[in-house]
Amino acid sequence: MIMEFIDNNITEDRRRKYSNALIVKILVILQIYGISYRSAENFFRNHPDIKNDLGLENIPNFRTLSRRARMIDWHKINNEILKSINTYKENSAIDSFIVKTCKSSTASRRKNYGNYKDPLSSWGFSTKGWQYGRKISISLDIDSSAILEWNVTTASLHDKNMAFPLIDSVRNYSYLLMDAAYDSSDIYEYIFENTDCIPVIDTNKRRGIVESRLSESRRKGLEIRKKEASRYSLRWEIERTFAILEDILDSEYIWYVRNRNYDVSVGIKMVAYNIIILLNQMFDRPKRKIMDIVI
Predict the structure, then answer these.
(1) How does pLDDT run across 145-185, given as a tens digit for each residue?
(2) DSSP state, 14?
(3) Is the pLDDT reported for residue 126 higher than 90?
(4) What is the spatial distance between Cα 247 and Cα 240, in angstroms, rounded to a whole number?
(5) Alpha-carbon distance 139 to 82, whole Å?
(6) Which of 29, 35, 127, 222 is such that its CA lies 20 to 30 A from the CA of 9?
(7) Which fold has domain 91-246?
(8) 94, 140 Cβ separation under 8 angstroms
(9) Which residues of 88-105 are buried (b: 16+ CB within 10 A; e: fewer)?
(10) In terms of Cα–Cα distance, which of 19, 30, 266 is closest to 10?
(11) Per-residue pLDDT averaged across 191-218, rounded?
(12) Nearest to residue 27, comparing CAs of 37, 41, 42, 19?
C-alpha cells in the first residue's frame, strides 16, 4: 500500500531506466533497514521478495543511487506524504538537534590545528553539551508526530535564527510550543503578525525579566506561557521524535564525505519516518510503533 502511494505521488520529469518513484522506494527501504548505498546490491540479492515487490530487474549501483538521491526534492515528497496523514492542526513544536559529522575525539583533535574537513560543520551547544557537526531544525505536528519541515545549518547558528521558515510551516496551527532558546521579542512578533498560532515559549531566565524593558510582544508571550503551563508539557513529543531519529534511524552520526548533501541525507530519513507514521495511521497502530518496522 505504501509502495502504491509512492507510485501515485512521485512525478516523473522524463523517462529514465529507473523512475523517480522506484528510486524513492529503494532509498526509503535502505533507510528503514539501515543499509548503505554500497551494500544495496547485496541486500536485494539476499531479499528477493523485496526485489520482486519493487519490480527490480537490475539493481542500481552506488553512484546511480547517490546521483539520483541528490536530484529528488525530498521536501516536496514530504509535503505529499503529509497530505495523507491526519493532522488536526492543533499543537505544533519547533526545536533542533545536532548531527555529528565526525567522531568527537577527531573533532577535538582537529580543533587544536584548525584543519577541519567539513567547511560547514562547527561546534554547537545543546542539552548534551558541546558537539561538533550540523544542526537539524524541525517543525512537528505533536498530535500525529509527523515532521512538517526541516532545515540543515551549521551547529553554531542560534536556534532562533532559523526559526522563521519553520514557523511558516505551522502558521495555521492553534498552538506553537518552543523552548527557551526561542524566547525573544522578534520571534513573538513574527508569530503574532504572520500566523494564527498562540506561542507557548519557555521563559529564558538567564536573560532576566525587567518589566520596564519588556517589549509588548514578549510581555504578552510571558503571560501566555503562565496561562498555558500545562500545555507546554506536550513539547516533549519533539524530544521523543529526536530520540527515534537519532537512535533508530541513525541520525546521531552522518559522517562528512566530499559531495555529501546533508539536506538530502536528512530528507530521506524524514520521509522514511513520516512513511512509518502514515503506515501506523493506516493500520490503526500506535503512532510511535516503529521497532517492528525498522530493523
Answers:
(1) 999 999 999 999 999 999 999 999 999 999 999 999 999 99
(2) S
(3) no
(4) 10
(5) 13
(6) 35
(7) Nucleotidyltransferase; domain 5 (3.30.420)
(8) yes
(9) eeebbbbbbbbbbbbeee
(10) 19
(11) 86
(12) 37
Asked if 192 contacts 217 with a C-beta cutoff of 8 angstroms, the reply is yes
CB 188 within 8 A of CB 199: yes
Distance CA 264, CA 28 (A): 12
Upper half-sphere CA count for residue 157 (Cβ side, 13 Å): 20
Q: What is the pTM of this model?
A: 0.92
CA–CA separation, 69 vs 67, rounded Å? 6
Q: How far apart are CA 245 and CA 147, in angstroms?
A: 11
**Sequence-separated contacts (24+) of 100-108 with Cβ below 8 Å:** 100/131, 100/132, 100/133, 100/252, 100/253, 100/254, 101/132, 101/133, 101/134, 101/253, 101/254, 101/255, 101/256, 102/132, 102/133, 102/255, 102/256, 104/131, 104/132, 107/132, 107/133, 108/132
Give counts: helices (H), strands (E), the chain. Answer: 13, 6
115 has pLDDT over 90: no
SS3 state at 124: strand
pLDDT-derived band at 291 (thresholds 50, 70, 90) equals low
Picking from 20, 32, 154, the residue whose alpha carbon sits closest to that of residue 74 is 20
d(CA 32, CA 13): 26
**Side chain identity, residue 269:** K
Going from N- to C-terminal start, the domains of the chain cover 2-84+260-282, 91-246
Half-sphere exposure of 7 (CA within 13 A, CB side): 7
